[in-house]
Structure formats: structure tokens, C-alpha cells
Amino acid sequence: MSKHLSELLGATEPMFTIALKQLEQASGNFSVDVRLTAEIIGKVHLKTRELGLDPKDTTGKELYQALLNLVEKHDEFLVKRIGGTNPRDVQDLIPRMKKAIEELDVPKKAWVIKHSVAKQLLKNMPPRTVMRHLGYRSVDSMLKRENLAEIYGSLRFAESPEWLNKFIQTYKKLKPSDFETREIEFVQLGSERWGKLTAAFTHKKLHNITHLKELGVILLLPMPMVELRGLTIFAFPLLIHYINEIRLYSTFFKFKQVKSNFSEILIDTLIADPGNHTIMAGQQVHWRVIQRYFARLENEYHPEIFEPHVQPEDLHWRKAEEVLFKMEPALHFWYDMDYVAVMHAGRPLPISLLDIAADFINDKPYEQRAIYHFRDSLWNEIFVRYMGQKTLENQILRQLDNEMIAPESIATSLRFQK
Asked: What is the pTM of this model?
């Protein structure tokens, strides 16, 4: 059964099979991959039938087109939910999405750098390109008149990679006392001021959402077009995703604040985001997986590991699809489908909302269909399920408790991609 998962993930063999065997041996459970594979196949058949198609007599192109048609319909539903009328009107929809996400009833608190500290960092190393762009000679004058979150957001678009790297290195002076808990801030960058500087990013990423982990800021960038189909069904789940991401790293930084090398961990995470936070049966496990696992547990919190710095609400995590179908019930079709796909023509065909929405908004042909979000979710799902075996859960807990991770000597190691 690992062959099916391997094909969906495009994993390197025999390394993938060896890794699963090590997880099985360590957990004492030899059917996790079998159950997951059967579940994926079953969900594909169920959703194919819900689309009015026959699972035994449907081509990949037919299924793909049916999913695109459904995304278009659900986009129209979601646009109405946020008060819009034209699902293609970019200038109208972006501020509506910002208002809707700000009012959304989900946890939005994060442990991030204090505003006063963030200002001092800029005073210590003024962003000259941003200052010239805005017409300021003095960094103090700029900080008095401008939105701090907007200035920090503009750094990655205006300043050089060399400057950005040097600026992040100034974080080495930061201490846990330089952080505070506050609400995540959503900032819409205006087209007239920032359109030219952000155009390269939106063109490369094929979307207009980005975030600042250490500041707790989510940015909605200007779009170069007046009309764009599918903007809401793609961008709104991304906004929810980035809320999760900021809170994910916020919890990680809170957990690590007792370490003597806290600032080094902060810098390394922001620059490289290493995935070796713990080791499970020889496999490197990212904090993202650890948080998702403990967020699923309703009756197990392990305060002896996480408190006093990390509280149960810090581990709260909900998939974007779960939040969306509570806003618009029709979107329940996509719930818990982020790790589900079927192989067609040697490439996975995901039934993942973000991937299909990405295909729709970017008008991707069948042969170039998106698979990134699906594969990322499936990797995570595999590890979360093995972590559910008591032996491996205890192994993770011991490492979190001791903060002494001795790398096991093993030739193969799976890594998560961001």
C-alpha cells in the first residue's frame, strides 16, 4: 500500500518505503499506510459520485473539469457571503475579504515582536530604499507618519536580499521580553504606492497574500488587473492558512523562549525554517506536524510539557475548509480533502480546495494542474497518523520535555517542505 502513497507524493524509492517500515517498526502498527490509502481511495470515489460522475467510467479530464466547475460555483457563493456582487471585481473584493477575515470568529492572537522594539530595529538599520520610495529623509519621520506593519511588509519588496539578510541578523539582540501577545493585523497595501514594487511577487507566486511571522501581520497586496475570476475562493482560504501559520510559529517561539539560544532559533526559523524540530523513528518532524497532532487531541494536552508558556489555545488549529463551510455550508464538499488525490496520467489529481482554486484562478490546463498544497498536506497527514501511535507520541513528548534531540544514525530522512 505504500506504493500508492509513494506515487501520490512523487517520493524517492526505496527511501520512502524504508522510512515507512521504520515508522511501523517503532510504533508496532503495520497498517497505518493501508488504512490511509483505503481512506483516500474511498474519498475519491465518494466525491466523484457527489459530482454526478461514475468512479469506474470517468477520465481525469472529466473529473478535473467537474472540480473546476464546482469551484466556480462555490466562488460565487463565497462572494455573496462577504457582501460582493461581482465575483471578478478585484478592487471591490479585496477590501471585502479583509473585513470578512477580521470579523471571522477564529483565534487570531499571536506572540510577536513589540511595536516599540520593531521601530527601534528600523532605527538601528534604516531601510533607505523604502524611505526614498515614500519620500522620507528621516527614519523617525517615517515611523511617526506611516503604518509600521505596512513598512515592514514593504521591506521584502523594496530592499535587496542582502539588506534583508543583514536586517534579520539584527534579531540576534532580541529577548523574550521583546515579545508580546496581540491580535494578528491585516494590512491592505495600496496599488498607487506599492503596485510596482509588489508586481514581481504576485507574478511569481500567482497570488497576492503574504505574511510576517515575527510581526503577526498578513498583507493583501495590490493586484495589477481590474477583473480576475476565482479571487475570493483562492485568496480567502489563503488568509485562513496564514492565520494558522503565524500562530503556528508564534507557539513555536513561545515554546523556545526558555532556550539560551532563543534569538538564534528565531533567526534560523525565519531564514531557513529547518524541519528537524524532533526525530520520530529516525525521521525529522517539523513543528507544524507536532502542533497539528496535539490540536486534534481533545482530552490530552500534556501541561507538564507545554506550560507555563504554551497554553491549550495556542495549539488551536483548524483547516481552512472547516472554517469556510461554516461560513458557506455548500463548501463542506472540500472539508478534510486537503490530502486526497487520485493518480491520472502519471500525476496526482487533487481534490484539494486550494489546488483546484489555484488551477481555476490561473486558468491552468489539465496537464499542469497544481499539486503543491495536496502533497504538503499528505506528508503531514502521514506523520500525524504515525504520531498517533502511543510509542511514537511518547518519543516526541520525551524530546519536547528534555529539549535534547540526539540525531539517530540513519541513512534516510524525510523532510517537510514549507
From this structure: 0.83
| Residue type for position 202 | T
Cα(256)–Cα(269) distance, rounded to whole angstroms?
A: 11
Count structural domains, the chain. Answer: 1
Q: Residue 112: beta bridge partners?
A: 180
Q: ω before 350 within 30° of 0 (cis)?
A: no
Q: Which domain holds residue 175?
A: 91-272
CB 388 within 8 A of CB 297: no
Indicate the DSSP class of residue 125.
Answer: S
Q: Examine residue 180 and state whether it is found in any structural domain, yes or no.
A: yes
| Cell, residue 287 | 513543528
Q: Is residue 163 part of a domain?
A: yes
Does any domain span residue 224?
yes
DSSP conformation letters of 184-201 = -EEEEPPHHHHHHHHHHH
Place of cell 499539486: 371
Does 80 fall in a domain? no
How would you write the pLDDT of the chain (418 residues) with one tens digit per residue? 578 999 999 988 887 888 888 778 777 777 888 999 999 999 999 999 999 999 999 999 999 999 999 999 999 999 999 999 999 999 999 999 999 999 998 889 999 999 999 999 999 999 999 999 999 999 999 999 999 999 999 999 999 999 999 999 999 999 999 999 999 999 999 988 999 889 888 877 777 899 999 999 999 999 888 999 999 999 999 999 899 889 888 888 888 888 899 999 899 889 887 766 666 656 666 666 666 655 655 555 444 444 444 444 544 556 788 889 889 999 999 999 999 999 998 999 999 999 999 999 999 999 999 999 999 889 888 877 877 656 655 655 556 555 433 333 223 333 333 3
What is the C-alpha to C-alpha distance for residues 137 and 207, in angstroms, rounded to an integer? Answer: 33
- 3-class SS of residue 179: strand
CA distance 12 to 158: 38
